[in-house]
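Researcher: Here's a chain I'd like modeled. Treat it as a single chain, no partners, no ligands.
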Amino acid sequence: MYSTMEFTDEADRRDPTKLLKAFEKHCLGEINDVYERYVFNRRQQEPGETFGSFVGDLRRLVKSCSYKAVGVCYTRPHSAWCT
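Model: Modeled as a single isolated chain. Structure tokens:
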């Protein structure tokens, strides 16, 4: 896999930061913002689920949504939380 990766120049192959970014791009692929926002906005607290667990999951989901407003409260139909 490493030998097939494309870099702008050969020095980038030895740069740990650029190498890690290349592996992340290859393994993770591109994020579909529309789908990730859909998943985030559809998330509801399940019966029996603790509020802390629910908020923790929302925080995990919001990271992949590309919402730019950090430190803003996001309002949900039945709750509000802040990042």
